Amino acid sequence: TRSALGVWTGSPVPLRVAELVTAFTDPTLLAIGVVPGVLFGLWMLVKRDRRSGWLALACAGMAAVLIAPGWYWVRYLLPLVAVASVLSGAALVQLGRGAKALFTSSRGVAGAVARRIIPLTLLVAAAGSAVVGVSLAIAGPGQFDVWTNDLPSAAVNYMAEVEDLGSARALLWNDFTGDTLAWEWLNARLRPGQRVATLEDRTYYIRYPLSFFYLDGTEAMPLLHLTTPVETERYLRSHGVKWVLIPEWDLSPKTGDQVLSLLPLGRFLGDRDFPLRAAFTVDGTQWLTKIYSVGGASTRVSPAVFPGFTAPAPTNGTYTMEPNIPDSRLYVPAADVTAGARLRFRYRQSSGGFQLRYLTAGKGWRRLLSRPAPGREGGWRTVDVQLPNTGPGQISMTFAVSGAPLEVSQVTSP
After folding, report:
1. pLDDT higher for 49 or 109?
2. What is the three-class DSSP state of 175?
């Protein structure tokens, strides 16, 4: 999902040259042998092997067609893999034959050792591939977290992926958390004929996967030259675009390619022509997946809620906050919290109580409100509180729960 545009940004070479360099030297494509395969095919063409030559020319032609518009991502070059891998495989076969001929032609002890080493090497390679392949097949999604020290919290259930086998939604929640909720939000609102402008590539989780209007595709090229919100909204509406989905991985400084900085649309998101409708956090990080409306009056925003790493997937918009777990988060992406923005939600708890705290610059967490548990017979209660004056930008909050688990529902920010 990496963007070639991120490579081109700030490049001192002409754009077309940068495109070509990206297509054939990107680490993602080098690893699967596109360049070696094409070079081998051209070399075999010189050796009068027409089949390899035609495959090499097919790779070059496909790359030219994909690069020509001047607005593409590396993932669009994926069709090259099928052809180039055949050439890379042929190159490996030729290399193996040459090595085998070199070793087996040796006489004496060297030749005897070589004749034993070659089959033994093949056997070890086959066994290693089988072990790795089977292990990856049964590990389940997200298991890489278990094998690294990159876990964001000690309160993690290492067996969650295995325990949730057979429950597709639970698996998705454990692996993608907030992104799962973003897909469900769209699925509940998308209608036939409506489209979503996005950089997202996981289309198989959307009810109408063909409804995507790719902001890095050829359809979006005119957006490069539309410099006003009105023009941009008119163009998107003419193509049936109802929503704009920006995944968190394009905004995070770790993984984002900042493609939106190349599109004027990126400056308009969040204003009155493209109001924010919902936000979602992945694993509680501050970089949010956001959904904007194309046109329409600004309405209540659904803030981003993360109940914690040990919490179950939310059901019908109800989150369960476990007691004494410090990693729950609630982010309100207010345009300007000095304008009197408010937070509303419903809650219930059988015993104990909770505090809602917000993060201040340089002063840590401060209490916004405190509520005792309504009790088993108390039912649902409503909180309507004005958000603190922390200046422009989103507010980071957390629930400090004691006693019984806290259920939170219908979280909105007018």
Report:
1. 49
2. helix
Give, in degrees to the nearest 5, the angle at Cα 133 between 129 and 135.
120
The stretch 218-233 carries a mean pLDDT of: 87
The one-character DSSP state at 276 is E
Contacts of residue 82, defined as CB under 8 A and 6 or more positions apart, other chains included, come to none
Residues whose CB falls within 8 Å of the CB of residue 287, separated by 6 or more in sequence, listed in order = 248, 249, 251, 252, 256, 281
The answer to whether residues 245 and 198 touch, using CB atoms and an 8 Å cutoff, is: yes
Please count the other Cβ atoms lying within 10 Å of the Cβ belonging to residue 336: 10
d(CA 203, CA 247): 12
Q: What is the pTM of this model?
A: 0.70
Tokens linked to 107: 């006489």
* Bridging pattern class, strands 304-306 and 364-372: unpaired
Is the separation of the CB atoms in 11 and 25 below 8 Å?
no
- The whole-angstrom separation of Cα 123 and Cα 126 is 5
Q: Strand pairing of 381-386 and 304-306? A: unpaired
Helix locations, 164-222, DSSP H: 168-176, 178-189
How far is residue 223's CA from residue 235's CA, in Å, rounded to a whole number? 8
| Cα(391)–Cα(149) distance, integer angstroms | 35
Q: What's the length of the chain?
A: 414
- pLDDT tens across 246-277, in order? 888 776 554 445 567 678 888 888 888 898 88
